[in-house]
């Protein structure tokens, strides 16, 4: 079998995502994808794509320019939005497996026609961002027992980290919430119908920053994504 070439959007803390996805495997090649490299067409060399965390998606991308007052202008990168929305278009057309993390969930939800909550505390929910001293929050999540996420982890509840101030609001077409926090914030999205559609799992937490390898909301997710990439290669080579 060919090496697994996994595209990865390049942004904040890129190295952490790359190290986590590749792990100790020697059959995984990570390919950074970004507007700064002007390498959108490198997606043609990828067998799967990870959409990583980072800046807020600009509210104009989901038809809510009035939400700008709840955002910090310095926390936008509109060229990244443009590049990654087109990348998602290419990925869907090529039917590649997708894993989205934090911003990756939010961007994918916008791509499929959904909207975002621009600032969770302002919307009357608990703060999901970093602690005042800069430490990570963590909290419980509840998983739909009929979801793909449950099939992957085998758990109806779990404990994850939390480093975001935005979240999915109206869910994009063809997607469904697979996990919620206790205050109702969407913590994971997946396809409503798995069927023959390519793998897509979007999580709001940061598995690449979790220390406990036994936590199924870290390790099991990575292993399933890698296996889906392998299956994509097998299907392509046997086509």
Structure write-up:
The chain has 239 residues and is of the alpha/beta class. The protein has five helices and eleven strands, in the order βαββαβαββαβββββα. Strand 9 and strand 10 form a beta hairpin. The radius of gyration is 17 Å and the shape is globular. The protein is 25% helix and 23% strand. The chain has a nine-stranded mixed β-sheet, with helices on both faces. It has a two-stranded antiparallel sheet with strand order 5-8. It comes from Parapedobacter koreensis. GO terms for molecular function: hydrolase activity, acting on carbon-nitrogen (but not peptide) bonds, in linear amides; transferase activity. Keywords: Glutamine amidotransferase, Transferase. Pfam families: Peptidase_C26 (PF07722).
Q: At the fourth CATH level, what is the homologous superfamily?
A: Class I glutamine amidotransferase (GATase) domain
Largest sheet: 9 strands, mixed
CATH class: Alpha Beta
CATH topology heading:
Rossmann fold
CATH architecture assignment? 3-Layer(aba) Sandwich
* Annotation, overall tally of beta strands: 11
Give the rounded overall mean pLDDT.
92
Unreliable residue stretches: none
Q: Which class of secondary structure composition applies to the elements?
A: alpha/beta
Spatial arrangement of strands, main beta sheet: 2-1-3-4-11-10-9-6-7
Helix content: 25-40%
Q: How many domains, in number, for the residues?
A: 1
| First-to-last CA distance | 14 Å
Rg is: 17 Å
Number of distinct helices: 5
Order of secondary-structure elements: EHEEHEHEEHEEEEEH
Please, what is the oligomeric state?
single chain
What percentage of amino acids are in beta strands? 15-25%
